[in-house]
Amino acid sequence: MARTAVSGRLAWRVAYLAEIRQETATARTLVFDAPGWPGHLAGQHVDVRLTAADGYTAQRSYSLAAPSDGDRLELTIQRVPGGEVSEHLTGPYAVGDPVEIRGPIGGWFVWRPTDPAPVLLVAGGSGVVPLMAMIRARRAAGSRALFRLVYSARTPADLFYADELRKPYAGLDVTYVYTRELPDGAAGIPRRLSVATLNTASWPTDFGPTSFVCGPTAFVETVADALLALGHSPHSIRTERFGPSRD
Ligand SMILES: Cc1cc2nc3c(=O)[nH]c(=O)nc-3n(C[C@H](O)[C@H](O)[C@H](O)COP(=O)(O)OP(=O)(O)OC[C@H]3O[C@@H](n4cnc5c(N)ncnc54)[C@H](O)[C@@H]3O)c2cc1C
């Protein structure tokens, strides 16, 4: 019985692109209709499989960008130059086109609306995607868990979900770190996320926070090390690595 449930959950299913929202010049949110979708938790991801006319297949993982909503799924894809799958999904892939999806996947890097603990979210680039699903899940559930998001991006133009994050929302604080270019008129210089910034933006350890860190591998490892150095316990830090750092 359990085995049937697991293999059923991880079976490939065909989803159809229903809507495209451009997030930045090189990233877009894809909204799919996935008939029979079993539902998911914020933080989980799916595998996406593309098949060429000659039968060649390519498969990559993408985080779910929004909480469960019937048969609707949202992914946000950053185009990686020369990338086999991301260039297709951010390029010729059009409304009505099919894709194969398998999931939901992941049981550790998840946030449940029943959890009252304060939450620190630390995003590097497209690593904001599963963290945004958590922010949206919190809002949809009316949770009062306190959230802080530290979002590192190259420039203001590279921010995903910029309008949504700009709107004030009770219990959510957002700190931006820009590594290449600051917003017009901002003081200071572009810099990488520092231990000092994390120290200011994170929760005191005696609040018992849970930290979710997501982004390029090197970013995630640096942030996780910094949180440990600031006294956060290893079991309170949950990480998701998207792949190589390109800087
Ligand atoms: C659990 C999980 C969740 C993910 N969620 C998302 C998501 O929500 N949105 C998203 O845009 N991506 C996400 N990714 C990354 C995604 O799976 C692919 O790695 C990415 O889209 C590149 O695939 P590609 O086929 O275009 O590039 P490839 O053809 O695989 O690679 C092309 C070149 O880019 C480099 N490269 C590969 N992956 C990355 C990367 N992630 N960053 C920088 N350079 C890379 C390769 O080393 C190679 O040089 C996630 C990865 C994981 C493991």
UniProtKB/TrEMBL annotation:
PROSITE patterns to which the protein is assigned, alphabetical: FAD_FR
Keyword Iron-sulfur tagged: yes
MF-aspect GO terms: 2 iron, 2 sulfur cluster binding; oxidoreductase activity
Domain FAD-binding FR-type: 10-111
Keywords in alphabetical order: 2Fe-2S, Iron, Iron-sulfur, Metal-binding
InterPro entries: Cbr1-like_FAD-bd_dom, FAD-bd_FR_type, FNR_nucleotide-bd, MRET, OxRdtase_FAD/NAD-bd, Riboflavin_synthase-like_b-brl
Taxonomic superkingdom: Bacteria
UniProt KW Transferase keyword: no
Cofactor: FAD
Protein name (record): Ferredoxin reductase
Organism taxonomic ancestry: Bacteria, Bacillati, Actinomycetota, Actinomycetes, Pseudonocardiales
